[in-house]
Amino acid sequence: MSSPEILDFLSHLSQYIVGVIGENDDPSISKWLKTKGVLLDGKTLTLSIGPEKIKLAGLGVNVNQEVVGRLRKGNYDIFVTYYPPLLLGNKFMGRYNVGYGFLDKIIESACPSLVVVGLSYEAPVIIEKNNILYLSPSPCYRGGYVLLEYDFEKLRIISYR
User: Fold this and answer.
1) C-alpha separations of 9 from 14, 15, 24, 32, 126 in Å
2) pLDDT attached to residue 80
């Protein structure tokens, strides 16, 4: 199944699909997300669900100081990033020494309840630290995804792979 086919399948299961671009993503993923208006690379998105709103932000593989500075000024319910924060980098990548301190600063100021990390060579990982849930699914091209239910009082992970 191609990446756009996976995204089309998931879009039938969920009301909203969002994403950021990673290093190994084929161009069809970026095109699909841009076409649907849900590519979060360096952007914020507010989703209205009934009378409530969920604010999301994302940072993909293309990072620059302007975007990092802008994202540090907001509060988000969910933060989606390709790279792991330095605080948890090795927990996501096993033997690899990865992680970026600038993400720790964004997360610290934004106070999201969930951080979804895309960089993953291992099986899916869930870690809770400082009242923030960090989730890293397996890569999209291998069928990785996160399906969430957000009821404004508690975040519930329905499924991930």
Assistant:
1) 9, 12, 21, 13, 24
2) 92
Which residues constitute the domain of residue 21?
3-142
| d(C-alpha 89, C-alpha 8), whole Å | 30
How far is 36 from 30, CA to CA, in rounded Å? 10
Neighbours of 56 (CB within 10 A): 21
Tally of structural domains, the chain:
1
Region 65-81: mean pLDDT is 89
Distance between CA atoms of residues 34 and 19, nearest Å: 10
Query: Is 151 domain-assigned?
Result: no
Q: What is the pLDDT of residue 79?
A: 93
Measured from the Cβ of residue 154, the count of other Cβ atoms closer than 10 Å reads 8
Q: Does residue 21 fall inside a structural domain?
A: yes
Record the pTM. 0.83
